[in-house]
Design a protein that fits this description.
Layout: E1 4-7, H1 13-32, H2 34-44, H3 47-54, E2 59-65, E3 70-78, E4 85-93, H4 102-112, E5 119-125, H5 129-137, E6 141-146, E7 158-164
Helix pairs in contact: 1-2
Length: 167
């Protein structure tokens, strides 16, 4: 199936929420358990949270759309704590279509959305070796580690990766 990357809109919120729930459970249940993942989804991927990301002034929310379904999403925004740095907050591909280049295509489009930045940064759950490997293949390198991925008191350690942005 062919997917086209485009900007997300209000009409995509429920499809995005469903994709995030599916991918979060497939990715994180083995590490954190289904109950903890369900809590994360409720907090991080509510319709209101997705709408706020879609409408964020200094951000870009993309979907890979086949015309029938959404195969992946990507969301990045300027990082207020570091000048000329964009934070890749989300890049998720539906498990049934992983490995088909959708994540790479979404990422390639996100790279073009922030022409004045110098660095892209992403935080990845420490146990998510598949994602870490994916980002390393895209040119990211580890620059730090953190104990609280996703927010205070999460108890979820993560690795911080960065990549110089193309000029």
């Amino acid at each position: 199936m062919v997917y086209f990357v485009r900007t997300a809109g209000e009409e995509d919120v429920e499809k995005i929420r469903a994709l995030l729930a599916e991918t979060f459970h497939a990715t994180y249940d083995p590490f954190y358990g289904a109950e903890k993942v369900t809590q994360l989804i409720a907090g991080w991927h509510s319709p209101a949270a997705i709408r706020s990301r879609i409408g964020k002034k200094d951000g870009e929310f993309l979907v890979a759309d086949s015309g029938r379904d959404i195969g992946g999403i990507g969301y990045a925004a300027m990082y207020p704590k570091m000048e000329k740095t964009v934070m890749l907050h989300q890049l998720y591909v539906r498990p049934s279509v992983q490995g088909e280049g959708i994540g790479r295509d979404i990422f390639a489009e996100l790279e073009t959305c922030f022409p004045d930045t110098e660095i892209m940064r992403v935080e990845v759950a420490l146990q998510n070796l598949r994602a870490i490997s994916f980002y390393e293949r895209l040119g990211f390198t580890e620059v730090d580690r953190m104990e609280e991925w996703g927010g205070p008191n999460s108890g979820l350690p993560a690795v911080v990766l960065e990549k110089p942005m193309p000029r």
